[in-house]
């Protein structure tokens, strides 16, 4: 099932990235914090437009008592903007996990088909390893039904 909230994030992100270029958080070079007299704050970075005589800035957003830099970095000199993406560790892990689960699902179809056709023998195990890179532990797990039901 599609998680509507997650889906919303994807839509928002693709909308943003179609409008303006994006940068990863770790590509930015932080310079300083700027404070206005009325207490507003910005973070200044080396400007990604390449100009050396000015900084690009992000306003600080307020969430309860905590402050964090907003997603949008602006160069007011050359009138450009970038979407700053956080380095999302959870998303990276989830992507790896999904890749693995897809691999297991694919392996599972292959193993069931081939074992049904050839029977489970040493020969079949070697065949699966040589032609599909599926080792015997995974074959055993698939046949025991211990895979693909992680969630
Ligand atoms: Zn600039």
Short description:
The chain has helices spanning 4-19, 89-118, 122-132, 136-144; strands spanning 22-24, 30-35, 41-46, 55-63, 66-69, 72-75, 80-85. With 151 residues, the protein is of the alpha+beta class. It has two domains: 4-81, no CATH class; 89-144.
What do you see in this structure?
Helix 2 packs across helix 4 (136-144). The chain has two domains: 4-81, no CATH class; 89-144. The strands form two sheets. It has a four-stranded antiparallel sheet with strand order 2-3-4-5, with no helix packed on it. The protein has a three-stranded mixed sheet with strand order 1-7-6, with no helix packed on it. A hairpin with an 8-residue loop joins strand 3 (41-46) and strand 4. The chain is an alpha+beta fold and 151 residues long. It contains four helices and seven strands, in the order H-E-E-E-E-E-E-E-H-H-H. Zinc ion (ZN) binds next to loops.
């Amino acid at each position: 099932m599609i998680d509507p909230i997650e889906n919303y994030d994807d839509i928002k992100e693709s909308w943003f990235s179609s409008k303006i270029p994006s940068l990863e958080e770790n590509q930015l070079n932080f310079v300083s914090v700027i404070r206005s007299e009325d207490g507003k704050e910005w973070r200044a970075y080396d400007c990604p437009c390449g100009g050396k005589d000015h900084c690009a800035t992000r306003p600080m957003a307020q969430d309860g008592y905590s402050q964090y830099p907003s997603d949008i970095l602006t160069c007011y000199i050359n009138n450009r903007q970038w979407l700053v993406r956080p380095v999302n560790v959870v998303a990276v892990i989830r992507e790896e996990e999904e890749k693995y689960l897809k691999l297991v699902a694919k392996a599972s179809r292959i193993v069931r088909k081939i074992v049904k056709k050839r029977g489970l023998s040493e020969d079949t195990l070697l065949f699966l390893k040589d032609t599909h890179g599926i080792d015997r532990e995974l074959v055993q797990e698939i046949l025991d039904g211990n895979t693909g039901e992680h969630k």
